[in-house]
Design a protein that fits this description.
It contains three helices and no strands. With 103 residues, it is mainly alpha-helical.
């Protein structure tokens, strides 16, 4: 039994929309970061799926997915470092309180 491309694209679309919804509705920086990670993982799923179904003999889509994972890891490390610095200054990581950092 083979899973059709629509099923994979549906999973990617649900992840993307969950990430967009979380990004716009959450006030916590960590929840916002998780939402961005969901959006990047949805893009990685699409890279792998389109590579598998359009060009099954080559691995460019998988390499793009690995590159996306590396970018995601670097982005997470930088974002967590920023969150730690915000927490040290404000004692809260809500997005509303970041405007207090302006000089």
């Amino acid at each position: 039994m083979e899973v059709h491309v629509i099923c994979y694209l549906l999973v990617g679309a649900v992840m993307l929309f969950a990430g967009v919804y979380g990004f716009f509705t959450r006030r916590n920086l960590l929840a916002t970061l998780i939402s961005v990670e969901l959006m990047l993982n949805a893009a990685n799923i699409n890279f792998a799926v389109f590579n598998r179904y359009l060009f099954p003999g080559v691995l460019e889509g998988h390499f793009f997915s690995l590159f996306g994972i590396a970018i995601s890891a670097a982005e997470t490390a930088v974002a967590i470092a920023i969150m730690i610095n915000v927490y040290r200054n404000v004692r809260n990581i809500q997005t509303d309180d970041i405007s207090d950092l302006k000089g």
